[in-house]
Amino acid sequence: MGRFRLSVVVPAYNNAPLLDLTLGGLARQTMPAADFEVIVNDDGSPVPLAPAVDKYADRLNVTCVRAERNRGRSAGRNAGAARAGADVVVFVDADTVAHPALLERHAAYHEGRGGRPGVLLGERFDIDWAAAGALLRGESPTPAMLDAYRGDPRDGHTAHPQHRRDFARAPWLLGFTHNASVDKATFDAVGGFDEAIVKWGLEDSELFYRVFHHHGGPPDLFARDPEAIAYHMPHYRPTGELLGTLDNIRYIARKHPRYDFEAMHSPATLGQVMGRVRLYSDAVAACRRAGLGRPAVLPAEVRAGLTDRTLIAGYGVSRLPLGPGSHTFDQDAPIDETNWHRLGLMLHDFRTGQFAQFVHIDLWRCLMPDDLSLLVTKGLRKADRIVLVASHAAPDAASMLPVPFVEDVEYAARMLEARFDVATTVHEEATLLTVR
């Protein structure tokens, strides 16, 4: 037997009946069983899952890898992928039933790329009782069982044409590994899933975030295939597990302190978050081209005050003679412990009152109105005052489109004066809004 076309990795814990459905779906694939392998990782189930896996030994090239203790889905997927013999790894969850053509769709995508790296995200139907009943009887769900209310949750978030275009800029946001494939070389190169993420949620998005940046963010690296279908079976979801996602967001944001992940601060839809990733990525580039965000525009009295506990955002600001306890968001310096590539929408890593001031040079002008409000609200919890610096040598708002840009600084001041104490001072090269 030659190399497999695909290695299918199924992380599983403690629910043999659902795993049986998952393996049954893989046993009914249009792809010949000789062309793929299935690796089940039993993540320390109290009752071993090997007997449920062994039922399919005559129909599948299937292996069960057991961990003696529960280590979480990241570690389980990594253990399964470590055994993979194919050049492409497909991840399918153990509460998911594959459409008969699922593996052929994944294989065709990767084989069509001629050896280039790539990620395919399949479609997930979040089915309810009728479709689940059909699958339990070994039947295929009918169209009536798969309407919009039982479809892929990502579809509703990305229905707007602009959101679909934004997918190329932040595809990792839609990277759900219940039904996804990636070339093994890329998976190994980025180090697989982060095993420090043990709570529910976002371990897959974090993996694909690294995949996206590892290859430099090409627009065709990720694809979605509405014909690569899997059915997500109904199952109990403890509220505590869902709340664990909040802890994961905080952990991942600290691991990747960049403006693109920072866009997840908002309870917006996934489509809107993708839009913010695009807008703010373009904003950082546009401000750099326009020569904005430079500390040279800071008045002498502001420079003199950068001696103690300053958080400052801009380009080249880490080269300023800052005092102890300071931190920078310098887009032109490498990320390290005291310099991040954020804009200031996620500030939870800092203590309340940690800074004497938060100085923000020009980049604040590229925030959407609700995000500017968020920046000020959060910033005043971490700093005694916020100094919003607006360079006079700036382009007009129309020329910056589609990037948002505050051209009328007085309007922004009036907006903030409704809630805060705002002092406006005009200097030779910049206008300053000091917010308390």
Automatic annotation (TrEMBL):
The Galactosyltransferase C-terminal domain sits at 180-216
Q: Which enzyme type, at the first EC level?
A: transferase
EC number, as in UniProt: 2.4.-.-
**Organism's domain of life?**
Bacteria
- What positions does the domain Glycosyltransferase 2-like occupy? 7-111
The annotated pathway is: Cell wall biogenesis; cell wall polysaccharide biosynthesis
The record's keywords, sorted A to Z, are:
Glycosyltransferase, Transferase
Q: Which InterPro entries match?
A: Galactosyl_T_C (IPR027791), Glyco_trans_2-like (IPR001173), Nucleotide-diphossugar_trans (IPR029044)
A Pfam cross-reference name: Glyco_transf_7C
Q: Coiled coil: which residue ranges?
A: none
Single GO MF annotation = glycosyltransferase activity
Q: Which family does it belong to?
A: Belongs to the glycosyltransferase 2 family.
> What is the protein name for this chain?
Glycosyltransferase
Whose protein is this, by species?
A: Phytohabitans maris
> Where is the organism placed in the taxonomic lineage, from the top?
Bacteria, Bacillati, Actinomycetota, Actinomycetes, Micromonosporales
